[in-house]
Write a structure and sequence with these properties.
Blueprint lengths: L13 H6 L22 H11 L2 H9 L5 H12 L7 E5 L5 H10 L4 E6 L9 E5 L7 H9 L3 E6 L9 H22 E12 L5 H10 E7 L10 E9 L15
Parallel strand pairs: 1-2, 1-4, 2-3, 4-5
Antiparallel strand pairs: 5-7, 6-7
Helix pairs in contact: 4-5
The chain binds S-adenosylmethionine (SAM).
Length: about 260
C-alpha cells in the first residue's frame, strides 16, 4: 500500500453498528404523507415520501451512517464474515461512503479500505477514496497500483443510474459485476472474497460459472435492508482459488 498517512483515528461506531445489524427493529407506525408536491415530479415525490417513512433511513441518520446501504453490508457481514480484522478491502462504487464506514470500523486500524466512485466522496478517516470510472480501460490497473498488493475482499455496490428500461439496466449492472469479478481474479489473495450487486435472478450463467470455477462457494443474498420492491440482490463468491478449479463438481453453495 502506497503510504498510510490517511489512516487516522476513526469514529467508534462498532457497538452501534452491531446493535444495528439486525436492522431497525420497530418500524415506525406513523406514515408521513407529503402535503404539497411543491413543483416535484410524481416520482421524486414518491421517493421523498418513501425516504421519510423508511426506518433504515432514520436509523442510518441516527447512527451517523452516510447511507441506508450500510445496513446491507452489516447484514451480509453478520452472515458471511466478510470484514475481517486487519483486512485489505476494495470498495467499488463507494459513494457516499456507508459501506466504507462499516468496513473501516470492522477492519480496525491495521486494515486498509480503498474506495472508488464516479463521484467525489467526503473523507472518512481510515479510508482512501479516488474518483474513477471503473469502466475506463485503465481503471483496474490504476486501482491495482494504488493498492500495491493483494486484497482480502472486493465489494462492489456499483449501480449505474437507472434508465427505467429493465433490460438495459440489467445489462449495465451485469457489466459492472463482470468487471468487478475480473478485477477480483487479478487482486484477491487465495481464500479472498467478492460481494457484488446484481439484479433479481442473480448473476448470469456465464458469470456464475466463472465464479464457481474460481471460488469455493457462490451464494446469492437479499439483505432485509434491501427494499423488497427493488430488484437488487448480491452475489457472494467466497474462498478465491488462485489456480482455479481443478475438476469434480464445484459446490455452488446454494441449498
Ligand atoms: C448504491 S451507490 C453505492 C452506495 C455505497 N455502497 C454506500 O454504502 O454509500 C452506487 C454507486 O456506484 C457508483 N458507480 C456506478 N457506476 C460506476 C462506475 N462505472 N465506476 C465507479 N462507480 C460507479 C455510483 O456513482 C454510485 O455512487
Amino acid at each position: 500500500m502506497a503510504g498510510k498517512t490517511w489512516l487516522m483515528a476513526k469514529r467508534p461506531i462498532r457497538r452501534k453498528a452491531r446493535r444495528a445489524a439486525a436492522g431497525p427493529s420497530a418500524p415506525r407506525t406513523l406514515h408521513t404523507r407529503l402535503k404539497t408536491a411543491r413543483g416535484r415530479t410524481v416520482s421524486s415525490s414518491r421517493w421523498l415520501e418513501r425516504q421519510l417513512n423508511d426506518p433504515y433511513v432514520a436509523e442510518a441518520r441516527r447512527l451517523g451512517f452516510r447511507s441506508r446501504s450500510a445496513f446491507k453490508l452489516i447484514e451480509l457481514d453478520e452472515q458471511y464474515h466478510l470484514l475481517k480484522k486487519n483486512a485489505v478491502i476494495v470498495d467499488l462504487g463507494a459513494a457516499p461512503g456507508g459501506w466504507a464506514q462499516v468496513a473501516v470500523d470492522r477492519v480496525g486500524s491495521g486494515g486498509t479500505v480503498v474506495g472508488i466512485d464516479l463521484q467525489e466522496i467526503d473523507p472518512i478517516p481510515g479510508a482512501r477514496f479516488e474518483v474513477m470510472d471503473f469502466l475506463d480501460a485503465d481503471a483496474p490497473d490504476r486501482l491495482r497500483a494504488i493498492l500495491g498488493g493483494p486484497v482480502d475482499l472486493v465489494m462492489s455496490d456499483m449501480a449505474a443510474a437507472s434508465t427505467g428500461h429493465k433490460a438495459t439496466d440489467h445489462i449495465k449492472i451485469m457489466a459492472l459485476c463482470e468487471i468487478a469479478l475480473e478485477f477480483s481474479i487479478q487482486v484477491l489473495k487465495p481464500g479472498g472474497n467478492l460481494v457484488a450487486k446484481v439484479l433479481k435472478g442473480g448473476a448470469e450463467n456465464d458469470l456464475l460459472q466463472l465464479m464457481r470455477q474460481r471460488f469455493v462457494k457462490v451464494h446469492h443474498a437479499k439483505p432485509k435492508a434491501s427494499r423488497r420492491e427493488s430488484a437488487e440482490a448480491y452475489v457472494l463468491a467466497l474462498g478465491f482459488r488462485k489456480d482455479g478449479f481443478k475438476g469434480g463438481d464445484p459446490d455452488d453453495g446454494e441449498p
